[in-house]
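ok so i was messing around last nite and threw this chain in just to see what happens. nothing serious, just curious
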Amino acid sequence: MGNFQPTIFPYEEFDVMADIKAIRKACKGLGTDEKAIIGILANRCAAQRLEIKQAYFEKYDDRKNIREAAEGTAVYSCSNELVDVLKSELSGNFENAILAMLDPPHVFAVKELRKAMKGAGTDEDVLVEILCTATNADIATYKETYFQVHERDLEADIAGDTSGDVRRLLTLLLEGNRDESYEVDEALAEQDAMSLFEAGEGCFGTDESTFSYILATRNYLQLQATFKTYESISGTEILDAIENETSGTLKKCYIALVRCAKNPQLYFARRLNAAMKGAGTDEDTLVRIIVGRSEIDLETIKDMYLEKYDVPLKEAISSECGGDFKRLLVAICH
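result:
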């Protein structure tokens, strides 16, 4: 839908050997040249960063490291993995963001899903953000990759960590059966709008299964037509109806789905703003969206952010974040 713009493109003058030598040099001796690392990784696409990671592994093998160690010139403890090198040199949110950039996007996403479900409690906001904004192809890739990375079943984990209507909605989304065409059936829009009205405002209590099915399976243009018809039937905007008829995590899911149907980039702009307002900053969300959307639609998200909040995204990041973490995120945003 629409002409959405990324901020990161394949680097035209890409030279993988020059990049790995520059990164190795940046990690040598006392201190680390974080600026050099940012300059390289924030200006390479994900596929090029994976090439860098693989080339580093192949170039600086263990035998060479052992020899350097014997000569007293080893710059880290005999590791040939770029991830290990950077872990030993970096720290905090900056380290987390750099490591996120060294994973393929779908691997990073499933790591975030697993993190949201590990330990005591579940971070439903992360599940909602990732699953409610995923395409059918994304869903299929996430399920396969989740098993490869974690040797666990994504659907089983989500079923085990959620309950009730939220579980049913997320399970429906995980089926990956959304219509992804651009066709609008006005008769269906009227039928769905009436079904939503009768399932919510038009009855005592709320029939969540009707809301979940329509929001999880119709294409975005179809949903926009449905929302417009809903307002003409009920006199209430669909988001207001959801606010009044639902609560908790289910309400967050429905709001995310409606906002994505209306304008996915504005949804992400809202998420970024929420991550930076109030006491403390949600750095994980900043990394997830800025890194994760950089090759999809981050430029458009920046436009939406400026339009909604009258502040450039880079300026908002600069006022809420600090140090190399700020410099990296701003560099990704360009």
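not much to say yet. Residues 186-262 form a domain with the Annexin V; domain 1 fold (CATH 1.10.220.10).
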